Amino acid sequence: MRSTVSTFDRAPKSAAKTPEQIVRMLELHERWLNNRSGGIRADLTLQDMSGTNLPHIVLRGAKLTGCNLSHSRLNGADLRKCDLFSADLHNSELANADLSGADLRGINLHDADLTGAKLEAADLRKGSLLGPQGNGTVSFVGSATGKVNLNSTGLKRADLAGARLDDANLNSADLTGANLMGARLKGASLVGAKLGGAQLQGADFTNANLIHADLAEADLTGATVSGANLEASDFTGATITDVDFSRATLNGAKISLSISTLAEDIQLIIRDHVMWADSHGREGSRAELFRRSFIRINFTGVDLSGASLLECKFGGAVFKKACLSMANLSAADLIRSDCTEAVLTGINLARADLSEADLTRAQIGPVEIRNRDGSPSGRFWPANLTGACLKRARLAGADLRMANLSRVDFSEADLSGANLDEANLEGAKLDGATLEGARLPG
Fold first, then answer.
1. In DSSP terms, which residues pair with 234 in a beta bridge?
2. Coil, strand or helix: which one is 216?
3. With bands split at pLDDT 50, 70 and 90, how would you rate the model's confidence at 131?
4. What does the alpha-carbon distance between residue 20 and residue 309 come to, in Å, rounded to a whole number?
5. Whole-prediction pTM
6. If we measure between CA atoms, which residue out of 177, 168, 214 comes closest to residue 194?
7. Minimal CA–CA distance to 167: which of 204, 119, 141, 112?
8. 10, 77, 78, 111 - which has most CB atoms within 10 Å?
9. Under DSSP, is residue 257 helix (H, G, I), strand (E, B) or coil?
10. Under a CB-based contact definition with an 8 Å cutoff, are residues 420 and 441 in contact?
11. What are the CA-CA distances from residue 190 to residues 169, 206, 210 (Å)?
12. pLDDT tens digit string along 289-325?
């Protein structure tokens, strides 16, 4: 395998070819591909072919090292196993081209269109080419860093399965629906890249930069993200089975993690608690956890009623339609958590931080206390939110009947259509809160 830096001495084969010579070389290359007499593999090393119009050209196996093919039309071209080491194809049209197995180290594909292109097992690692100069010296052809430049490149539905893209520049690249199964992107930069619906199973993003990347609906099953920067990236609807995010940066990312990503002992406690809740205490055991971290964990639909989760961290966690009736989450961190339509009746959220949490249509009303024989007692156990912080929280349509809301900070919260009948609002802050259609006590 060639080293990452290649040197070419001055030689006639690197001299500029005339258009007639290039056409003749392409004809001989076709004969070479078909094993016909007189055929010669095309060697267009360091040639300037910018602006070439060669759609559907068959250049399979050609040597195009350092070749300038910028602004060219190569739609549907067969470039399989081509040597395009440090070639320049910026602003070129390569839609539906086949570059499978090609050597693309150090290539410049900035603003190129590779929609539907095949790059399976292509080598897109960094690489630099030293070419001859007129004064007898050599210098870098293209960037001295040798990093593959795919900045702003269109790669929709492209096949990059198994491609080696270590250290590649894919900033703002459009990889929507692309196949990157098993691809290697160690240290790659994908800032603002579009990876929606992409197949990323088994891909390696070690130390990659994916700030503001769109990974909605992508399949990352078994992908590696150790050391990756995923700040403000969007994983909405993405499949993240068997992905370990423990060493990735997730600040501001839209992502929820499966319970299966928790430590095995915690998973067992949760399973036992669900059994306890489902059997009304006859089986399993009640969860009692203190100051544990459940940041971004997805508890959608999970029954955690009656659990003791004091001072636990649930920042960004998802509790959609989950049941936490009579649970104790006093002083818990629930910043930006999603509790849409969750059942929180009789819950203890005293001193909890629910800043910017979504409690739309959540049930935070009272639990009716029943007699031993199961008959109604006429008494109720209200939810306790004393001293909780709900700044900028969304509580539209929430049921807060009878809740203890003393000293709760509702600053800039959305309480439109919420029911606060008989609630205790003593000392509560409602500065800037939206109360349109809300039912207030008294």
1. 214, 254
2. coil
3. very low
4. 78
5. 0.64
6. 214
7. 204
8. 77
9. strand
10. yes
11. 7, 12, 5
12. 999 999 889 999 999 999 999 999 999 899 999 999 9
